Amino acid sequence: MAVTLNRALDALTGWLVGSIGDDAACGYALAAILQAGMLLNLVAISGLVFIWLERKIAGRIQDRLGPTRTGGRFGWLQTIADGLKLLCKEDLMPGKADWLLFRLAPYIGLAASLSAFLALPFSGMPHPFVAQRLDVAVFFVLAVLGLEVFSVILAGYSSASKWSLFGAMREAAQVVSYEVPLGLCAVTPVMLAGSMDLVTIGDAQQGGFWNWYLLHSPFAFITFGVYFTCATASVNRAPFDLAEAESELVGGFHTEYSGLRWSLFFLAEYGSMMLVSLLAAILFLGGWHGVLPLGLGSGGWLEALLGTGIGGYLGALLGLVLLLTKGLLLVIFMMWARWSLPRLRIDQVMTTCLKYCTPIAAVCFLGATLWQASLPNGLLLRPYNAELLRAQAAGPVATPPADVLIVDTAGGRP
Amino acid sequence: MQTSVEDPRVLEFDVRTDEMLVNMGPQHPSTHGVLRLVLRTDGEVVSEVTPHIGYLHRCAEKIGENLAVRQWIPYTDRMDYLAAMNMNLGWSLAVEKLHGYAPPERGRHLRVIIAELGRIASHLVGMGAYGLDLGSFSPFLYAFREREKILDLFEQACGARLTYSYLTPGGATADLPAGWTTRCLKMLDEFEPILPEYHTLLTSNAIFVKRTCKVGVLTADRAISYGVSGPVLRGSGVDFDLRRDGEPCYTQMYAGYDFQVIVERAGSYPATTGAPPPPPEAVLGDSWHRFYVRMLEVVQSISLVRQAIALYEAEEGLDHGQPFKLGAKLPVGETYLETEAPRGQMGFYLVSLGQPNPWRARARSSSFCNLSVIGEIGRGCLIADIPAIVGSLDIVMGEIDR
């Protein structure tokens, strides 16, 4: 997206440089602000939609209708009405709370959830819609998403409530359990594509669903299941919503929160839900590529018909829609699980993640490696797009600058 | 002062944990009303549970001394408000025992219909709320959907949906309206096939089994020594049900009916269609068994209602039992009668000096004894197990505090 927008903003930049002064940074700053705005709105609007969707899905699962009044027959505006209500609520803080951390905690969560979208591509080559294409995008996304834990722990710690503290401690215990298998599962597609760049990983799965990493091998298939389980745990969704278990801990870490701060936690939760789902779609479900090879991508009939410019953009836009659809389906699956399953106990969550998910993920990684070594074309003898991969590997520089690798071995300990 | 790692003071300073007293309730989502539990916790482990009750005390028993026996019926409604019909029945039977009165046959079958429907409604709430305690939201609404249909039937019979005051000393305030039995049978026909759905969502659900098996194990000896009753007692494997083992003036109500007492005998429960067998993890007397007994009792109650409707319709006379006159004087004497309410043995004690109102009116609540075991079986479990145990005891605070 950066490349696209920068190109589109070239004229604007030129005008700015001409009018403001001899500094191209202005144009880039503007482009950055625009992109940040687009990403923010994507998360915020999808948050609005997801909350409405969750209520509708919960209603349908439970033999109810869900919202039907606000905003017409389907209650479209229910979330906005709720948001307005939350804005108008009294801003409460417990008297003994740590005022700085109490106020800071929801913003940390939201910032972590939003920042992770920076490295998430929404379409592939040659027009990657991505705010900042990173060589280590998988690592970046998982690492930044992991920061969200701080918000939960800080919120629970600073609330000066015993229930909140329990929620925070549970989150701390949970995070050490699920982060390990989650990382191990994400490594499998990285190994298969030979890159940590999400654009490369997504594009390596082009050409129909039989090329998706989900169907690469039985091991990859199981890895996807483990990944999705751990991803559900990482975004605190049922049956892993222990940090806010309302039948046990009243509200868990957000017991003492109200109004806008409380809603920020939820915006962060829904943002993270979308993020892990989109990540799952890119890593395992072909990302922005369609179920069948219909030639919408580069070199397809769209480009032949409309030219590489408009045709390419249209293809990329369709890829974006495809990716969002896949992510949405995964989110709906999470909602379905939430409204159907009882909650696990904290020791059972840790057992599930550490005693089952971690060994399974490790074995599957090993299995997928051996599979890749013995059957490089996969089970279905997929048409291996070697040229494309080679071209992409040559694209972004894969090796980090040398100075990063220099380790100070001479200095002693203080 | 020089310290080393071997110094026990350093070690204790580093790893020593403090106990924390946590107040669970009376405003807590899963304490079933206004129960307050004080938990002594070490991390997530609960070392002591102390229940505090009395937040819903309304002096119902004292009020009963100043009211005619029929006027006290609405107060019994508010004891176990989830099974108000069975409360009405308990008090009515106690008063009738003092009078030495037996209702006509039609009234007897009517009472069985109503009492067993009340048991189904009550167990539905118990089942749904138990799912809620374990974090599963949907079964609660499924249970309420079916309960609504029973409440509709009750509304058609007596005009109220929660506090019925329907069964009364002497019989019932009114006979069942025309077409009621047909609607009731239709409701049961629709309801019975839904039960396997509940079993799928809860009873045999892997997470549910993990959360309830071996949690809060109450042995048979301990259950008897604490005086627990109802499904909690039968979940511990004690074969006791007042509908079969109670006093004659209560058991004669069920004379001629065919039903089984749901209890594990020789390692297996009475065969029930659509119900999954107990999982291998389950231990007799744990939360899972208490829940399971309730689920199977619903099936028995459905069968009882069907039998009762057949007998009720076959009855020739139209007399369903006329309520006693409001100012009618009670015979001098005292009486005590326990009935099998959905939550256990509900006893009513009555002393009369020959006035229309009793000299003493007292109630013995099953939930009170059932709750008393929480300190025993809640010790040493995790915080998340406390709602699981309290939910499996299925208490109603209105009955405990009165």
Compose a concise summary of this entry:
Chain A is an all-alpha fold and 414 residues long.
Helix count, DSSP H or I runs of 4 or more residues of chain B: 18
Largest sheet descriptor of chain A: none
> Helix and strand succession of chain B?
HEEEHHHHHEEHHHHHHHHEEEHHHH
Count of individual domains of chain B: 1
Low-confidence stretches of chain A: 396-414
- Estimated share of beta-strand residues of chain B: 5-15%
Give the largest interface. A-B, 30 and 31 residues
Described by its quaternary structure, the protein is: heterodimer
Q: CATH superfamily assignment of chain B? A: Cytochrome-c3 Hydrogenase, chain B
The arrangement of helices and strands of chain A along the chain is HHHHHHHHHHHHHHHH
Please indicate the count of domains of chain A: 2
Computed CA radius of gyration of chain B, to the nearest angstrom: 23 Å
Shape-level CATH architecture of chain B? Orthogonal Bundle
Strand order, sheet with most strands of chain B: 1-2-3
Percentage beta strand of chain A: under 5%
What is the molecular shape of chain A?
A: globular
Mean of residue pLDDT values of chain B: 87
Query: Which CATH class of chain B?
Result: Mainly Alpha
Q: How is the main sheet of chain B built?
A: 3 strands, antiparallel
Count the beta strands of chain B. 8
Keywords (chain A): Cell membrane, Membrane, NAD, Oxidoreductase, Quinone, Translocase, Transmembrane, Transmembrane helix, Ubiquinone
GO molecular function (chain A): NADH dehydrogenase activity; oxidoreductase activity, acting on NAD(P)H, quinone or similar compound as acceptor; quinone binding
Enzyme class (chain A): translocase
Subunit structure (chain A): NDH-1 is composed of 14 different subunits. Subunits NuoA, H, J, K, L, M, N constitute the membrane sector of the complex.
